[in-house]
Structure formats: structure tokens, C-alpha cells
Amino acid sequence: MSQNGETSIDYFVNGEKEQTTQHKLTVTEILTRAGFEPATQYTLTRDEGSHKYTDYQEEVPIHENERFTATFIGPTPTS
Questions:
Q1: CB–CB of 15/70 below 8 Å?
Q2: pLDDT tens digit string along 31-63?
Q3: What is the mean pLDDT of residues 19-30?
């Protein structure tokens, strides 16, 4: 439970635990909260069912122990 009495929801991005008290987060919020910035250089996939999100503003329902994978799609640096 959070400090204000709301129940927190644990979810995972690339195996790393995240928490929220919100029942929905946008794709951008999920990626940036997990440290994947800029979010537009990553895709987000729900592990259960392998659903890939293509709209960064789409609201995603967050369930307890939900698992997501962030995949880098940005430009590859060259030397």
C-alpha cells in the first residue's frame, strides 16, 4: 500500500520491478518510468500474449505482476 492509502501495483519491465497506484499507464509512461528514454526509441511488448504496442499514447491496463519487454529500435551508433 502506498503512503496515501492507495494500493500499489507491482509490474515488471525487462525483469525490473516497477510500482504504480494507477490502473492504467500510457506506453510512454511505462517506458520512461522504467528508464527507457527517449521512449520513441523503444517498443513495448506485453509478455503475456506477445502484444506489441505501436501507439505511445495508448493507455495500458496494469495488473499485478504484469510483465513487459522494452526493445531498442533507435539508430545504432557508429564509430
A1: no
A2: 999 999 999 999 999 999 999 999 999 999 999
A3: 97
pTM of the predicted model, to two decimals? 0.88
- Please give the Cα distance from 1 to 15 (Å, whole number): 22
Residues 6+ apart with CB under 8 A from 49: none
What are the extents of the domains in the chain? 9-72
Q: Do residues 14 and 70 lie in contact, with contact meaning Cβ atoms separated by under 8 Å?
A: yes
DSSP structure class, residue 3: T
Answer whether 18's CB lies under 8 Å from 33's CB.
yes
| Cis omega (within 30 of 0) for bond into 38 | yes
User: Domain 9-72 belongs to what architecture?
Assistant: Roll (3.10)
The DSSP string of 4-44 is: TSPPPEEEEETTEEEEES-SEEEHHHHHHHTT--SGGGEEE
